[in-house]
Amino acid sequence: MTATASPEPRPAGVPARVWRWFEERSGINAVWTVFFARKVPIGVGWFYTLGFATLFVFTVQAATGIFLAMYYSPSPDHAYDSINFIMYQVPFGAVVRGIHHWGSSAMVVLVVLHMATVFTLGAYKYPRELTWMVGVILLILTLGFGFTGYLLTWDEKAYWATVVGTNIPGTVPVIGQYLLLITRGGAQLGALTLARFFAVHTLLLPASLAGLIGVHLYLIVYHGVSVPPALWERLPRQARGLLGSSQSARQSQALHGEAYHERYTEFKERGHSFWPNIIVEDMIMAAVVIMAILATMVILGVPLEARADPTNTAYVPRPDWYFLFLFQMLKLFPGFLEWFGAVIVPGLVLTLILLLPIYDKSPWRSPGRRPLAMAAAAVLAVAVIVLTYFGAQ
Amino acid sequence: MQSENEEEKQVAAQEVTRRTFFTYVNMAIGAFIAALLGIPIIGAAILPALAKTKGVDASAGSISDFQVEQPKNVSVTITAKDGWITSQEDRGIWVVKHSESDYTVFNGRCVHLGCAYNWNPDRKEFMCPCHGGVYTINGRVVAGPPPRPLDTLPWKIQQGNLIVNYEDFQLGIPQKVEI
Lengths: 393, 179
What we know:
The complex is a heterodimer of chains A (about 400) and B (about 180). By secondary structure, chain A is mainly alpha-helical. Chain A has 18 helices and two strands. Chain A has a single domain (about 35-320), classed as Up-down Bundle (Cytochrome Bc1 Complex, Chain C), CATH 1.20.810.10. The termini of chain A are far apart. By secondary structure, chain B is α+β, with helices and mostly antiparallel strands. Chain B folds into two domains: about 1-50; about 55-165, Rieske Iron-sulfur Protein, CATH 2.102.10. Chain B is built from one helix and ten strands. In chain B, the strands form three sheets. Chain B has a four-stranded antiparallel sheet with strand order 5-6-7-8, with no helix packed on it. A three-stranded antiparallel sheet of chain B has the order 1-10-9, with no helix packed on it.
């Protein structure tokens, strides 16, 4: 042992030394370990890629949005011309705008699918209640992006859908008129509205969303992703020993604190590392999503209607497809109750969704054991789909 | 004992290959996505900025307005395209008439740093007031810092009018290069 002299350690190369300098001062390895080298519990599958896909589309929207902003003028006398410039003068301009346009639809689809999955798998339950609530706020911000985004093209659809959209808060009794004025930046929909929507769309919302995504991701990494209910509710051998055979399966579902973490760790230790194993599915999903966005753009084109004309009496305004349910619901309420249908009902539903983990006390996670929750969600889904269908007619 | 160790080693080796494989797959997909997005985005950001501006035709007035070998300063109105904004802008040029059918037209900016220069009828030279650049009637540099002769512009005669193809060039360098 002592006889064998170890060879002289080779001096580290420049890249290694630069890296070590950087690592010692930034602690980047620790960050990498926490976010990427973490273990993911067994049983996660393709359903678990939707959150990553949503994050991916957000970065796509941010990237395309930044470069669209280089050629965009948020002023009624130039906005439409600048969009035309992007579409016909800037090389790849139509592609960048197409990705951004269809990316917004993809974002809404993915957020809703991600939410539906988390709901169905009961992943919003202890200890992930806060993750869910932050997620619901992210949904609201995503819809805010959609609403503020489509005014910016200043075409007929942009103008008239926003006229109607901004009139909705105006129907609220007492404070409605103030809400309308604040939303528009004045009585008329014009230069002040466009500049305001541009600021909200490109500065306020991205900053808010990025911050909340940070919180959302922190919570996901802090708690680890949930174990699928089918596995979680089937007691692992170790957990069975831990709990004792006399305890019922139901009790095991209500695990909190120490007991929960011990059980979760069992699953986690048997899982794989996020990098490079689990993330492969996420990456494949991201590639599929971007190809789907590009395919939609090629098939359906990049819509741009005629320049906004405030004197046009023939135009029938229709919002983007993800607001059609709201558009259709307004028709169901008589004039004096419009605010109830347009503001109170959606507000109530959103509040119910937001506070779901607070009042949903069922210890079960698998959808089969939560008939009431699943039925309520199905009613909501059917209502939105039916309203959207009739709104599109 | 020994065989168990061997087995463990084998499993560990397999795990390493698996990880390496996944790492390459991730990098490949990442590169694919980056190319799909990066090419249009970077292209859209950079290419329009590098596009050469083209000269635009503008009328310098009737050919009868000019006298032979007497340079005349003319303000031409060009239709300038600035992104999505189209506007009418005035630009200065110097027209030197050699005969009824032969002209020399100079861009009105000194090629040194872009000042407007003047014709001195006594010395029969173009003189730039900024940094003392002096040119002959043919645009050749006689004195001062200008790195090249005055920039000539293409012209043609249409229905008795002198039509100039106005264009600006990079300043301060020995070559006449379009912007």
